[in-house]
Amino acid sequence: MMSKYLFSTSKLLAILLAIFIGFVSCEDDESDNPTPPPTVEPPETSISPFSLVAQVGEEEYMTLTDDLLTGKISIIGQGIETQSFGSAIAAGGHIYMTNFGEGTIDQIQVTEEGYEKVNSLSAASLSPAGFFRIVQKVSETELLLMNWPDDSASVPYAVIELPSFTVSTTGSFTVPRIGGYDPVEIGGIVKDDKIYLGTMFSKLGTWDVFPDSLITLVYDYPSFTNPDTLVSRASLGTVAGFTGVSAIVDEQGDIYQQNIRSKHWYNMGTREEMPSVVVRIRDGAYDDSYSFNISDQFPGTVSLIGFQYVGNGIAYGKLLDEDATDEWGDAWANNFTSIVRLDLYNQTATKLDIPAGPFIAIDEGVVVDDKFYVPISPVGSTAHIYEITTSGSGLEFTVGAELDGNNVVANKIMKNE
Amino acid sequence: MKFNANPRQLLLLFCFFLCLIPLQAQEETAIIRGSVKNQAGESLVASRVYLEGTDFGAMSDEKGFFEIQGVTAGSYRLAVSRIGSESYVQEIVVSAGQTLRLKVRLTGKDVEMDEVEIEGETQSSLLEKQGFSVEAIDTRQLQIQSIDINRVLDRTAGVRVRRSGGMGSDFIYSLNGMTGNAIRFFIDGVPMDYFGSSYSINNFPTTLLERVEIYKGVVPVSLGSDALGGVVNLVTDQTVYNFLEASYSFGSFNTHQAVVSGQWKAPNSGLTTRLSAFYNYSDNDYGVWGRGVTYATPETGFRPIEFTEEDPAIRFNDDFRTANAKVDIGFTNQSWADQIFVGAVISDLDRGIQHGQTMGTVFGDIRYTENFLMPFLTYRKEDLGIKGLNTDFFLSLAMKEGINTDTSTNRYDWRGEVININSNGGELSGNQSRFTLFEDAYVGRWNTTYELSPRHKLGMNFTYNNIQRDGEDDFAAWFRIPLVEPQSLQTLFGGLSLESNWLQERLTTNAFVKYYGYEAAVNEDVLIAIDGVQQTISRTIENQKNTWGGGLAAAFKVSPNILLKLSAEQATRLPSATEALGDGITIWNNPFIQPEQSFNVNLGTVLGPFDNGVHSFKVSVLGFYRDTKDQLLFTVLDNRGNGAFINIAQTEGKGVELDFNYSFRDFIEFTANATYLDIRNNQSFDILTNQPNIVYRDRLRNTPYLMANAGFRFRFEDVVQEGSRLFAYLQSGYVHEYFLGWPSLGSQDQKNKIPTQLVFDAGVGYTFPSQRFSIGLDLSNALNEQVYDNFLLQKPGRAVFGKLTYRILSDN
After folding, report:
1. Looking at CA atoms only, how far is residue A363 from chain B in angstroms?
2. What CA–CA distance (Å, rounded) separates A185 from A133?
3. Is the whole model's pTM more than 0.90, yes or no?
4. Does the distance separating the beta carbons of B750 and A81 come in below 8 Å?
5. CA of B727, closest CA in chain A: separation in Å?
6. Which residues in B lie closer than 8 A to residue A128 (C-beta atoms)?
7. What is the pLDDT of residues A24-68, one digit of tens each?
8. Residue whose C-alpha is closest to residue B141's, from B748, B741, B714, B740
9. What's the complex ipTM?
C-alpha cells in the first residue's frame, strides 16, 4: 500500500519539477527588458560609412552612422559593446581595436548587417606585457603595435600586415637612458623608412623629475635599428602624445610635433620658459628655426593637448584653459577645453566659436574632403558633431548630428572605408 | 555630533515609540499540537492527549491530529492514551509563545512518543514570527554530504551566490537584489569579517553547522550589524555534551576536506573544552574552454586558438589550501555563567590566482598567503542577577598577515606554458610586487535582552570594531605608499529593540533604532616639492560619519496557518576596511568614502503548513522594495582592472519571491522557489561626470534577475539494516541570462551576456544503525554544463565527491 502511494506521488512530483523549471526557464517577454530602446534598423542596401565610438563610465560602444550632419546618432539600442579603451583605428576597410576582455586585437568588418569580428590576434602572446598600449596606423596596409618602455627600457612591438591581419614582424628594441633620466613614454610617427618616437623621460617609479627639453628618438623602420636622438630646447614635457597623436606629417614631409606640459601633467608646471609649443622636424632633425609658441597666442595659461592634421598646414587641436582648472579632474569634468585652429605655417592659433567641453569629450574627428567632423559633448548642453570647413578661414562650422550627450562621451569618429 | 533625521527615520522612530505604549495585559499561552499514528504511518483517531492535573487536553481527529490551545507556561506531565493501549507520560516544559509539536506513534499496544519538536524554539523562528524576512536552513541533514555552504544557500529563495571558480574562489552574495558587501556574514552572531579568509563562508564545513539563518533586507538588532541588504548567520551547535567527530571528504579536482570537532565537559567542575578544526585542499584543476580560453604561437600566426569541451584547458594555478583550528576552554552551566570561554582561532591559507577579471588574462605564478591568529573571550548568561536579563559578549583581537606575491617575469597562456618574459615582472600589476598587508582588528560585541513583562522584551546591542592596517612591499612600488603607511578604521554600532506580543500572541512586533558611527584615517598620495625636489608623500585624511536608522517588523497570525509579515528598515552600511583602506593589490583606498543608505521594505505571507498526516505543504510569498543611495561600487580606474570603491550609485527596486514546500509522509520532500527582481538604476546624475545619466532607470547591469530552484529530498529508515537512515536529494538551479553591461545600450543581440544556466546536483547519504558512521556521495553539475556566474569566468563542470563521517564519541 505504501509503495503504491510512493510511486504515484513521486511521479506526480517529477511532473511538478519539470513544469516548474519549464515555467521559470521561459524567455521573459519584452516587458522584462529595461527601458525598451527604440529599434533603429541599419541601412538595407549599403554599408554605413562612419563609426562612432562612445563611452559611458567604463563601458564603451561603437555604432554605425550614415549621416554626420542630421538626425541623432545614439548608442541606445544600437551598436556593439567594445573594450578598446579608445584604441580603435580604421585602416584599409576594417576597424582594429584592442579587446582587453579577451586579451586580443580584433579585426572588425563593417557589413550591411553591422559589425562582424573576422579575425583576432593574441596580444597576450605578442606582447610580454600582455597588451599593447599603442595601436597605430602606419599606412592602409600596415599597423604598428607598441608599448611604452619597460623598466629595462625595452620596447616590444609588432608590425601587422593589412588586410590579411597577419604578423609580419615582432620583437623589441631598447631605448637609451639620457642625462640620468629613464625613458617612460614613447609614441610616434613613421615617415619613409624612419620612425620618429616622441618621448617622455623621467625617473622610474616616481615620474617626478624631467629633462628641460623635448626628446625624439629616431630609428630605421621597421628594423628599429640605427638609433638617433633629437633634442629641442623649445620647451619641455612629453612629445609621446596622450589620447591622440602628438605628431603629424604635412604634404612637404615635415613632421610637426606638439608637447604636453601642464600643471596637471605630473606637476610639470606651466612657467613662461616652458610654453606649449609645436616644433618641426625637418630632414631628420629638429628645425630650431621653427617654434610655434601656442602659449603666446592666448591670454592666460593654456595647454595644447593633442591635434589632428587636415591638410595644407592646418590642424585642429584641443586647448585646455589651465587657469580654470585647479586639478586634473576639472579638465575631465568641465567645459574648459576648446577647439583651436592651428595654422602651422603662419604660426597662428584661433579658437573656434564652438562650445567648449570636457577634455575627454572633444576627441578624434575625421576629415572628408575639406570638412573636419569632430564630436563634442559639453557639460550641460546638447552634444553634437560639428562640421568644420577647413578651407577659407577655417573657422566656419555647421552644427551636425545630435549625439546622446549627458554622460555619454563620444570619443571618436572613423571612416569605415 | 550632529543629528540628522529624514522623514523616513522620524516615521520609523515614531513606530518604535508607538510600540512602547503599554496595552492591556494579556495572558501568555502556548500551543501543543501533533499527530498520532500507528507503526505503518496511518493516522489514529480518538487518541486522548492531555496534561495531567489540568483541564488542558484534546482528542485526535480522523486524521490523527490534535491541538491544545491556551496552555499557560509551566511544567506538565503530558499523557497520551488510547483504548487498548497503555498510557504514555512525558515531562514537558511549556514556555510562553511556544508551539510544541508532537509526533506520537503507536506500536503494538504501547504508545511511544516518537518525536517531540518544539516549534519556535529557534531564534530564527521567533524572528519570523516577529515579522522579519528570515530563512532558516537546517543543515544537520547535510552534514554527512560534501556540499559547501554556498551551494546550499544558492538554492534558497531570493539568494544568489556568484562564484568565480572552485574551492576557495571569490564569491558574491545577492539577497533580493542587494549584493556584495551589502550582505554581512556572521558566525553565532559574531561578524565573520574579522575571522580571516580561511573562516569565510565558502570554506566553512557544513559538518560544524546546525543551521544557517538568512535575514533579507531587515536585520534584528541582536546581530549588531550595519548590513544593508541582509545577513547570513552560521549557527553552530551550542549544546553542551561530550562528543568527538571526524569527517573526511574527497573528490574531483583532487579536493580534500578533513574536519575534526569535539567537546568535553568535566562531570563536576563544569570545565568545558571545544575543538573544531578543518583542512581544505583542492587543485581546482577543472577544465575550461571557449571564449577567452585560448593560446597562440608563431605557428598559429598568433591567432588565438580556443580550447574546446573535448580538449579543455586545465587550470594550473588555482590550487587552494587552508588549515584552521578553533579551540575554546572555559566553563559551562555555572551559576555565574551559562558559558564562558577563552579561545583562539588560528589559520593559514595559500592559494594560486589563475586569472584576472576574465579568463582572457591568465596568470601562472601569482600567489596569496595568509596567516591569522585571533584570541577571544566569550560570555553568556541568562537571568543575570535578575530574572529575564540575558546577556552575552564577545571580545577579540584578530591579527592577520596577508601576502600577495606577484614577482614573476613569466607570461603564461592556457596551456600553462611560458610564452613571454616581461622584465618588469608582475603578472597582475605590471610591476614586481610582494605586498604584505598587516591588519589588527579589535572587536567587541555586547548583546543583552531584558523581559520587561511577559509581553515585552527589550534588546540592546553594541558592536565596536577598530581596525589598524599597514603594509610593506619588498619592491616598494611608489603607488603603494598610501597602503604601506598606517591607516585605521573604527566603527560603532548601537541598537535598541523592543519585542512585543499583542492580541493573545496573534500580533508580534519588533521595533528598533540603530546608531552607526564611522571614523577613518585614510592616506592619500600627493606629489609636492620639498626643497625644490618633487616627492610623492602620503598624507592622512580623517573622515567621520554618524547616522541613525531604525525599523519595524510585525507579524499577524490571521489563523493558525496563515501568517502575514511586514518589516521595514532605514538601514545603513558602513564602509568595510577594504573599501575604505584598499587591499594593497587591485583596490585603492578612498579617503572620502561615505556609508551606504537603503530603505528596505518586506511584505509577505506564510500559508501553512497544511498537514493531513500524509501530505503537508507550505507556501511563502514575499514582496520587497529597496531604495539604495550612495551605493559603493568597485569602479575600474585603469586598464589593468585596478580601481576603488566609490559612492556612485543609487538603485531602486522591487521583487517577489515564491517558496513552495511539499512533503509526503515525512520521507519525500519537494521544494521549489522562484525569485524575480526589478532593480533599476536610480542615479539621475552621473557622479563622475556630473552629467544627466543616460542609463537612469535602466535595469541594473550584471545582476541576475530571474532565478528558480527545485528539488526533491528523500528520507528512508531501516534501509538494508534496521535503524539505518538513507537520505537522497536531487536539486536543480536555474538562472536566466543577464547582460554584463547596461541593457539599454547597444544592440540587444550583440551584447555580452552571462548565459542562462540550468544545473542539476544529486547526492545520497547513508547512516549506519549505530548512528556513528555515515557515508555520503555527491554529484554536482551532473550534466557537465558550461556555466558562468560572471562574465567569462567559467565554473567547474561535473564533479563527484565522497564523504565519510565518524562519530567517535557521543553521549547525546
Report:
1. 16
2. 10
3. no
4. yes
5. 15
6. 411, 420-423
7. 444 444 334 444 444 444 445 478 999 999 999 889 999 999 999
8. B714
9. 0.86
